[in-house]
Amino acid sequence: MIISPSLVICSSSRPLLSRCPFSHHAKSRILNIVSHGRTAGDARAQAQARFTTSARLTKFKILFCGSDEFSVASLKAVHDARDLWDSIDVVVPPEREIGRGGKHNKTLERYTPALRQYALSNDLPSHTVPPEGIKSWTPPGPFTTPSPSHILLTASFGHIIPLRILKLFPEDHRLNVHPSLLPRWRGAAPVQWTIASGDEFTGVSVQRLVKYSRGVDAGDIVGSIKDIRVPNDATYTTFLTHLAEMGGSVLVDVLRKLRDGNATFTPQDAALITHAPKITHEAARIKWDEQSADDIDRLHRGINHQVHLWTPLLSTTTHFITLRPLPHSEYPTDLDGEIGTAHLIKDGKSRRLFVACAKGTWLEVLGVQMAGKKPLKIKDWWNGLPKDVRDQGWVKMG
């Protein structure tokens, strides 16, 4: 008998056997819910419950939703696993103009989802969410009619899937690839906050998609790769490539387990939840009294691809394009270390800008951009400051 694993796994709020379309004898053969340490009234044991599928499926009809290079890696891995699927339909957000550089130095670029390009290059049917959003969107056929072989996969999609669409798929066939080790860094910007917070290790998770009221990225975990080291010089763009490859690998592994009927879903530990909110202009503001040079460097490496770090300066805003934390051996001991003070140092024909940061640390700024202006090297930027500032050789930031 070939059935979907999701037909035998359900939430505890609805009787499983009452939803099963098979005979009593068949039910006894396919039901295999494993719960370790689960007892009535024991909330902690409930949280540690694991649910294992026990039936076997042939191939999936896949609806894959994504947008960027991270999602391309997941789709490519699935696309290459030809034994897993009968068909793949791809869904992407619409092309649009996006702003980069922050509130005061915003430039508009036309954004075409990388996933669309992959779909077109590989002759996969491609569908676009309308500009007004996914709430008014209807999935393509055959996904408007529920089927045990249908599966919804998302990776870096950028839309919250509404419940009416989730309900078109079996409960265990609604999966999302997330670039962190959940429940750490739930939310829109997990890689950015992983780097900015100085995490030494991270991971990639595949989770069940659940209704929004339960929380973002709150679904049970069905697969993960742990202990991925975060390089000391990691940036969002360089590190995302590695995580994307890991995401594709774990997703294919999960799909094979679902097909074979031995996938295990584990609830997230609520005590370990941290949030990764969307990167905003305010998040990029340097807090000189709180952030060390290393803190500033990590934030820069995590979010600079979206918005440049900035600080108020002389009634305007200065954005930092390139910077580096000074090693202790290069600390300028002859300068005033008042936090937030930037000193211009003459080094032959070149100019260097050192800023005193929290915790007794120092930052070197290598390139800046004033609000509404083009990026400048330090010498050119300093020459454009008022004469009294240039003459005193320092300026207060923040």
Automatic annotation (TrEMBL):
* InterPro entries tied to this protein: Formyl_trans_C (IPR005793), Formyl_transf_N (IPR002376), Formyl_transf_N_sf (IPR036477), Formyl_transferase-like_C_sf (IPR011034), Met-tRNA-FMT_N (IPR041711)
Q: According to its record, what are the GO cellular component terms?
A: mitochondrion
Please give the superkingdom of this protein's source: Eukaryota
Which segments constitute the Formyl transferase C-terminal domain? 278-385
Tell me yes or no: is Protein biosynthesis among this UniProt entry's keywords.
yes
The record's PANTHER family line, in alphabetical order, gives:
METHIONYL-TRNA FORMYLTRANSFERASE, METHIONYL-TRNA FORMYLTRANSFERASE, MITOCHONDRIAL
Name of the molecule in the record: methionyl-tRNA formyltransferase
Record organism: Kwoniella europaea PYCC6329
